[in-house]
Amino acid sequence: MKKNKKGAKKTPARVIYLVGEMTGGTISKITRASLAQFTQQELEVKKFFQVRSKELVEHIMAQAEADQALVAFSVIDPPLRDFLINEAQRRGIKAIDVIGDFILQLSIFLGEKPMAVPGRQYILDEDYYRRIEGINFAVNHDDGKMPKNLKLADLILVGLSRTSKTPLSTYLAHQGWKVANVPLHPDMDPPQELFQVDPKKVFGLVINVESLVKLREARLEQLGLESNAKYADPVVITDEIEWSESFFQENPQWCVMDISNKAIEESAASILTAFKAGRKPS
Question: Between the CA atoms of 224, 226, 229 and 234, what dihedral angle is there, to the nearest 10 degrees?
């Protein structure tokens, strides 16, 4: 059991087990989206994927019992799913059938028996491999990493801290685009490679002061830091925004987009529309 700085005991971290037959992409996304609605003070997520035998299920459930964990699972094969549910009941574990409950309701609604084929949504076609390549590229070229490879990107996002560069890169990557993002700051020189690529694929992201203050305050709170830090100071942020706007004016061949109060999906759609049309978004 952990202690805080004053020596007082803290409650042990809660544990969530994610169990799936395939790579776990779907259940991981659902879990991340769901956990975003909670404060997550002390939480550990343990992942067990490619689970296809009763022996492995039994081993995992024994660990879950010891951890007093909540088990969220995505197991389509009926015998294996039933075995997991029985193990959970036998050990007094709360288990959530993340995909199965939805499939059951769809079966009732459609009047059709489900195929029960694990991973059927992940047909290994050309689009699948393109998405995997895009995701790997976005991870490896996030926040200015590996600037020498900017020439290999389909799209390059440029902007101040907390202007949604990483979420946008990730969202676009899941659509099969190779996206890199480059951070801007008045005291930091952008990589020279940024000015050597096709300008049509460079998108500058701008945002209003109020939105950026809120985003940075939320980030500080997430990190457990004071919200009045210089990072979220409206005066400092105003100076940064004015500087970034001047920087983009010096590179008029780039497409500049205001993402203030826009959802990631909306901004991504605007970027793709502008990129495909070869013009700036309105």
Answer: 110
